[in-house]
Amino acid sequence: MENLKQFTKRLIKEEDAQGMTEYILLLVAVVGIVMVFKNQITARVESAVGTLGDKIGSALQ
Question: How many domains would you assign to the chain?
Fold first, then answer.
């Protein structure tokens, strides 16, 4: 029983798991934002790529 108490105390004091949890929550938040604004992001990227393609095409002529 004493080993379980010591293990629990070490687990609570352990900060590595807390850091990993924070990274996972941040990743979930970023993925959620990307999913919500997927259409807007896609439109902006396509527009930027199109503009870049036009400028490259005009520079090569």
Answer: 1
